[in-house]
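Here's what a typical entry looks like (DUF2789 domain-containing protein):
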Amino acid sequence: MDTSAHDLNALFSQLGLDNSDEAIEAFLSKQPKLSQVTLLHEASIWNPSQAAFLKEAVEEDAAWVDAVNHLDTLLRK
């Protein structure tokens, strides 16, 4: 059973991004806000493997879904 954390910092690490709090804040501040019609995994900010991971996490209601939904909310603020 996977008992590792599935929080926002761990999600950034899983996506191959710097997962420090400062790096996450910088990433979020540099990204254009997503429109309400753009699905998170369809945003142009992701490479194909990142997009696939995000899509799969939501479609399969995986352990990562809460962190992915949190990221989605942050990118729309």
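Residues 8-74 form a domain with the Arc Repressor Mutant, subunit A fold (CATH 1.10.10.1130).

More examples are in the samples folder.
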